[in-house]
Design brief:
By secondary structure, this protein is an alpha/beta fold. Helix content is 32%, strand content 22%. It contains 21 helices and 28 strands. The strands form 7 sheets. It has an 8-stranded mixed beta sheet with strand order 10-9-6-4-5-12-13-21, sandwiched between helices. β22 and β23 form a beta hairpin. The relative contact order is 0.10. Adenosine-5'-monophosphate-propyl ester binds next to α12, β17, β18, β22 and β23. It holds the Pfam family ACAS_N. Belongs to the ATP-dependent AMP-binding enzyme family. It catalyses: acetate + ATP + CoA = acetyl-CoA + AMP + diphosphate.
Length: 646
């Protein structure tokens, strides 16, 4: 297997080399108090913490708290403290969907905008602890709105702009937001996303919403409802540019972010202030080896956790210059990403494998016609990166010069957990490599037996984490019991990630993908249960079962088995209707790739759907279906094999 050793220059100049990594890792686990005392010094505390943590994953005394008696304000850490010396440093370089549009915003300007935005929110009655839903395009005002919430102690819940009004309404209702922040519209690949119209449709089902603050951006016509809707640009001028940051406890909530799980509705993952900010800033510092002056670009949308931790909180806490991009990788053409790299002289680029695979398919020429000489480091996140895409990223995008940090983590973890450090870790394409400081991974088999962790011995099993880390989520909003049940009840005393993983002879971790009913489509996490419940909500559908299947570009595609009501004759028109239906119920990201009309689904005698068999058929791998003797009617399987979709 190929191993790319740490380039000599990186070993010399990085914050940590291999020996430093090993030593810091050891200290983080063996001397946590001293270790975290040092690492939390990167945060400005209003009142320094004295208690490290009180964390237990056991049912009897379950709870997670870090630095609990410390106080801080997250927005002051991301803004105010940079003003004295770096006020004129560019905080955000914005690149519009339309390549002729750019904006540059200094820390001083960002600070003023955040203060004004915070004052507008206060004027609308928002206060500490309130939930505020954000549904915005990738524009600087998205960061401004998040930081303004943090400034006054309100809890933001960002909903990705690709979600439908139905999905948005569910998320507004779940956390009972009184305020929604949106834009008239966003632009993606030259197409308008009608955000305000979507909010109007959603809010019609949300009696809790009293006010909608609208950022004028795309310039499309919108309906403004008197008494409820206001333009940010109008309000901005009428408020003071000063706003005192609220003193927040380290364990006060910072944000909620909804994410999909195996069962039920999306969960409101709740992150708090002190531990989360420490984790986001610290991982950004070490993983990207960020230095003042570097131009750093994370291509994720702020609607996902990557956008929270690595577009906004981590880099801004570190005083970084961040590129923020509204558009898509292939508009106006397949060179767009690399044109942006050249235009803004980007040094660090962090993106998702799905985009790389899509660009790889278009050929090297689109990349090669750009210089990319400013690039020094590349990153990958969101899904396993196949070695072929990794090598392409390394050879073509990075010209064989830039280390690639393949960072494994989750919405729940707040920041990177298993990741190379560029000056320390030899790289194996496809492996997220080694645990970050403070992270204690463990592999267990299906019964929970711990697999031996010894040098030279490989193992494969389910990935758990045995100790808490500061960036860990603290609860599921409004349902603490669900938090415990989802993550800590499968394997007693451990956090279960939902991922399968192999550890090789050198101790490198290779994430093999989800082992639960979650699928990862283009780096977007979807619960199969959510798509199923959308399908069965259609009047002609009796039953549905959704599984993932390997997809060249998306990583995984969505394969839906649908049983129609008895009187319905399934046809092409219904297939199209159901695809459209799911897009309306959840959003375009949940578009099924295949719909397989099935007269019946394979079930056990007790009525349980045998998903294992459905996955195999969807994958086109019917040679090893395993034991089908427990099925109530084994002939169902033959029918499905004969009628496989796609
Ligand atoms: O399956 C893993 C995959 O994405 C899941 C988490 O998704 P989400 O909460 O949306 O967060 C994505 C951004 C951090 C994980 O359970 N995943 C994420 N990063 C990687 C990955 N799988 C393999 N390699 C990665 N680098």
């Amino acid at each position: 297997m190929t191993v790319h050793p740490v380039p000599a220059e990186w070993a010399r100049r990085a914050y940590v080399d291999a020996a430093g990594q090993a030593e810091k890792y050891r200290r983080s686990l063996e001397e946590p108090e001293a270790f975290w005392r040092e690492e939390t010094a990167r945060i400005d505390w209003i009142r320094p913490w004295t208690q490290l943590g009180r964390c237990s994953f056991d049912e009897a005394d379950f709870g997670i708290e870090w630095f609990a008696d410390g106080t801080l304000n997250v927005s002051a850490n991301c803004l105010d403290r940079h003003l004295a010396e770096h006020g004129e440093t560019t905080a955000i370089i914005w690149e519009g969907d339309d390549p002729s549009q750019q904006r540059r915003i200094t820390y001083r300007e960002l600070h003023e905008d955040v203060c004004r935005f915070a004052n507008v929110l206060k004027g609308l009655g928002a206060k500490k602890g309130d939930r505020i839903t954000l549904y915005l395009p990738m524009i600087p005002e998205a960061a401004v709105a998040m930081l303004a919430c943090a400034r006054i102690g309100a809890i933001h819940s960002v909903v990705f702009g690709g979600f439908s009004p139905e999905a948005l309404a569910g998320r507004i209702q779940d956390c009972d937001s009184r305020l929604v922040i949106t834009a008239d519209g966003g632009m993606r690949g030259g197409k308008l996303v009608p955000l305000k119209a979507n909010v109007d449709a959603a809010v019609a089902h949300c009696p809790s919403v009293e006010a909608v603050l609208v950022v004028r951006h795309a310039g499309n016509a919108v309906t403004m409802q008197g008494g409820r809707d206001r333009w940010w640009q109008d309000e901005r001028a009428a408020v003071s540019p000063d706003c005192q940051p609220e003193e927040m406890g380290a364990e006060d909530p910072l944000f909620i972010l909804y994410t999909s799980g195996s069962t039920g509705k999306p969960k409101g993952v709740l992150h708090t202030s002190g531990g989360y900010l420490t984790w986001a800033a610290m991982t950004h510092h070490y993983v990207f080896d960020y230095r003042p002056g570097d131009i750093y670009w994370c291509a994720a949308d702020i609607g996902w956790v990557t956008g929270h931790s690595y577009v906004v909180y981590g880099p801004l806490a570190n005083g970084a210059t961040v590129v923020m991009f509204e558009g898509v990788p292939n508009y106006p053409d397949h060179s767009r990403f690399w044109q942006i790299v050249d235009r803004h002289q980007v040094n660090i680029f962090y993106g998702a494998p799905t985009a790389l695979r899509a660009l790889m398919r278009e050929g090297d020429e689109w990349v090669k016609r750009t210089s990319r000489s400013s690039l020094r480091l590349l990153g990958s996140v969101g899904e396993p990166i196949n070695p072929e895409a990794w090598e392409w990223y390394w050879r073509v995008v990075g010209d064989g010069r830039c280390p690639i940090v393949d960072t494994w983590w989750q919405t729940e973890t707040g920041g990177a957990m298993i990741t190379p450090l560029p000056g320390a870790t030899d790289l194996k394409p496809g492996s997220a490599s080694l645990p970050f400081f403070g992270v204690a991974p463990q592999l267990v088999d299906a019964e929970g037996t711990v697999l031996p962790d010894e040098p030279g011995v490989a193992a494969e099993g389910n990935l758990c984490i045995t100790r808490s880390w500061p960036g860990q989520m603290r609860t599921v909003y409004g349902d603490h019991e669900r938090f415990f049940q989802t993550y800590f009840s499968t394997y007693k005393g451990k956090y279960f990630t939902g991922d399968g993983c192999r550890r090789d002879e050198d101790g490198y971790y290779w994430i093999t993908g989800r082992v639960d009913d979650v699928i990862n489509v283009s780096g977007h996490r979807m619960g199969t249960a959510e798509i199923e419940s959308a399908l069965v909500a259609h009047a002609k559908v009796a039953e549905a079962a959704v599984v993932g299947f390997p997809h060249d570009i998306k990583g995984q595609g969505i394969y839906a088995y649908v049983t129609t009501n008895a009187e319905v004759e399934p046809d092409e028109a219904l297939r199209r209707e159901l695809v459209q239906w799911v897009r309306t119920e959840i959003g375009p990201i949940a578009t099924p790739d295949a719909i397989h009309f099935a007269p019946a689904l394979p079930k056990t005698r007790s009525g349980k759907i045998m998903r294992r068999i459905l996955r195999k058929i969807a994958e086109g791998d019917v040679s090893s279906l395993g034991d089908t003797s427990t099925l109530a009617d084994p002939s169902v399987v033959d029918t499905l094999i004969a009628t496989r979709a796609g």
